[in-house]
Amino acid sequence: MDLLFSGFSDILNPQTLLIMGLAIAGGIVVGTLPGLSSVMAISLMLPIAYAFGPVTGLAMLGAIYTAALYGGANSAILLNTPGTPSSLPTAFDGFPLTRQGKANRALYAALFASVLGGLFGTVVLIVAFEPLANLSLKFGPPEFFWLSCLGLCAVAAISEGQVLRGLLSACLGLLIALIGQDPVSGDVRFTFGIYPLISGVEVIPALLGLFSLSQAMKILEAKGSHIAPYQSEPNLMGTLMVKFRSAWSVLLRSSIVGSIIGILPGAGGAIASIIAYNEARRTSKEPGKFGKGAVEGIIASESANNSQVSSSLVPMMGLGIPGNVNAAVIMGALMSFGIQPGMGLLTNSSDIAYAFMASLVVSNFLLLGIGYYMVKLTARVLLIPSNYLGPAVIALCIVGAYAATYDIYGVWVMFGTGLLGYVMLRVGIPIGPLALGLVLGPIAEKGLAQSLQMAESESSLLSFILSRPISVALILLCAVALFAALYVEKKTRQAEGRKEEIASE
Amino acid sequence: MFTPAKLIRLFVTLGVFALLILLIKPFTGDGNLIDSYPAKPIKFIVPFKPGGGSDRIARVLDKFTEAEFGSAFVFVYKPGGGGHLGLRFLANSKPDGYLLATYNTPDLVLGHMTGIANYNVDDLSILGQVAFDPNVFSTSLDSPFNSMKEFLDEARKQPGKLRLGISQPKGGNHLATLAMLEEQKIDVSVVIFSGGTEMASAVLGKQVDAGIGGLAPFLGSMEQTKFLAVSGANRMSKIPNVPTMTEQGIPMNSGTGRVFLAPAGLETFQVERLKQGLENIFNNEAFQEELRKIGNAPAWMSGDEVTAYLKDFEVKAQQVLEKTGL
Questions:
Q1: Given A42, A46, A220, which is nearest B6 (Cβ)?
Q2: What ipTM is given for this predicted complex?
Q3: I need a labelling partner for A408 at 20 to 30 A (CA). Which of A311, A424, B143, B146 fits?
Q4: Which of B191, B225, B289, B290 is the best mutation test for A, with the most CBs of A within 10 A?
C-alpha cells in the first residue's frame, strides 16, 4: 500500500500531469480518427518516452493506450465507423442514437463507461496481477477456440429479425478470414497470386472499407444536408445518471468480462467487447432495444473495451509475456529502461511498477476531465454538411488504410471491402456479422488447429476436450448464448405479432 | 443516388485533399554524396509486429544510430508472411540507401525453399549480423523431465504421447527439430505456435510437455521455467547450467541470426558506410551489454560470412526438407 502511495506521489507532479494530459488529448484524437491505432501512436511516441525517463515515459505511454482505446468510440458513434475492432459493438447502438439526434447521450455514456471500466481493470491489475498472470496460463488453444465461438454467437444477437442474412454475412467474414497463411502449417492459401494477401485481409483497412467507406458513400447519396440532427438534450447528465444507476449490473458484468478476457494473451479487446455486449443483451429486460439505440449496449461495449486496457498488461507485468501488441510495445519500453517485466518485477523494480500502475489510475481521471470537454468538440462533426464530411471520411479512409499497412495494398483492401460493404448495405445484409467473422475467424481457426494437434496425443478429440474444465464451461456458455438468442428472437416476434394484432383490430 | 453535382463535388474535394498531401510532402534533396551520406534519417523496416524480439534488437541498435549516422532510424512495421512481406518490400524498393530492414537467418533462405517468400534473395544485400540466439528447449518447473535426453527417452517409450511445441511454422527450429526427431526415430505430437511469446505461455501453462524457441520470451518467468537443453554449439551465459544438445548426446544445432539488410544495388560507398557503421556499433561494449540484457547473444558476422553460412545451410536444409516433407 505504501508503495502504491509513493507511486502516486511520483506521478502527481505538474510536469508529469501535463505530459499525461497532452498524451490523453492526443490519444483521443488518434483513437477517433479511423485507421490510426493505439499501437501506431505508442510506437511513434517511444523515442519521446525514452527522453522523459521511466516514470514519466511509461505514464505517457499508458495514457495514450487508455485514451486511444476510448477514442475509437467517438467515430463509431458519430460516423458508424469503428476505428478499432474493439469498438465494433459500440457502433451497433451508438450510431442509431446519433441518427435519433441523441449523439451527446451516446458520447457521454461511452466516456463514463470507458472511465469506470478502465478504473475497474486498473484496480484488478494493481490488486492481483501476479496470481492472475498465472491464471491466464490455464487458457490454451481449445479455450481460445471456444472463446471465439462465444464471440461468434453474438451474430445471432446483432442480426435480430434477419438471422439467416446475419449468418450469411458471418460466413462470408469467416471465408475472407481464411485468406493468407495457414496458422499452423504456414502454407499459403487463397491469395490468388496476390502476394500481399499472404498476411490475410488486414483487419483495419477492411473495417475502414466495410464501415467507413460504405458509410461515406451512404452519407453522400442521402437526401439530407447533414448525417443526423444534432441537438443538445436538456438535463442530459441527470438522464445519464439515472441510466447508469439502473445499468450498474451491466457495467459491472462488462467490466468483469473485459478484465478476464483482457488477461488472456492473444484474445484481445474485440472478443471482450463483443461478449460483453451479447451478455448485456441476453440479460436485458428489453433485448429488442439493442441495436436500435440502447445506451446499455454502449455501456457494455465501452466498459469491457477499456477494462481490458489495464488487464491486458497483467501477463506482461506478471510473466513478461505480452498479451497484445500494445502491451508488447510498452514491455519493450520497460526493457529499454533496464527493467525486466515478469516475476521479479515487484522485488527488483517495485517503485517503477507501482508508479506505472498509479499512472493508469490517474490516466482514467484525466480521461474523464479532458474527454468531457473534447466530447463537445467531437460532436461538432455532425454540424459539417454531408457534402464535405463524406469526402473527408473517404480521404481519412485512404490515409488510414495506407498507414495501417504502409503499402498501397491496404488502400485496395479498403476500397474492395468498401464496395462489398456498400453492396451489402444496399441489399440489406448486415455488415456487423461479417466484421465479427473477419476479426474472430483467425483466432478460432488457430485455436482449433492447435487443439487438433494437441489432441493427437490423446485417445480421442472428445476425451481431450472433456478433460479440460474451462473448455467445458465455455461450451456450456456458448449453448446458453445460442438458446437465449433464439428465445429472445421468438419473444420479440411474438411481441411484434401482438402489436400487429392490436393495430389491425 | 449520386447526382452529377454531388459526384463533381466529391471529386473536387478529394482533389483538394490530394493537392494538400502533395504540398506537405517534404522536398527531399538527393544527398547521394560520399561525405554527406546519410544526409537524412534512414527508414527502417521491422517485418514483424511491434514489440517482438526483432523489434527490441532494432530498438537497442537505434540507441546508437544517432551517434553513428547522425540521426535515429524511422521505424516502419510491415508484418506478414513470417516477415517475408516486409523483406519483399525492401527487395523491390529503389536502392537509394535510405531504406533498411532487419531479419533472421536461416529464415531468410528457408522462406524461399518452403514457398512462402516471393522475391529474389539476390535483390537483398546483407550488411552484417549482430547476434546469434541458439534455440532452447524448455518446460514448466514441475515437469518430470530434467533434460532433453530424459524427454526423448520417455517419448521413445510412449510414441505420440508427448507434446512438443514449436515456436513458428516452417522456421529454422521447426526444420531442425523435425530433422532431429527423424534421426532419433522418435514420434511426438508436434504443436505449432505463432511466435515465441505464444509458445512460452503454452509451455508455462503446461499445454505442451516441452517447447523449442528463443530464450528471450522466458526472461520474465525464469523462476517458473526449467530449461532442458540449448540447441547451440555452446552453453548460454544467462543459463550456464543448461547443457547443449550435443553434450546430451543428441546432435542438434539451431538458432536465429539477427541480420540487417539493404536492397542490392546501392552505391559502393553507401554499402561500405553502412557496413562499417554497423560494425562500429557492434564493437561498442555498451551495445553488446544491452543486447545481453534483453536475452540475446551478441555475435558479429560480416555480410559475406552470413551469405556463406546461408549457402551451407541451404544444402543441408534441402536434404532435410526432402526427408521430412515440410
A1: A220
A2: 0.91
A3: A424
A4: B191
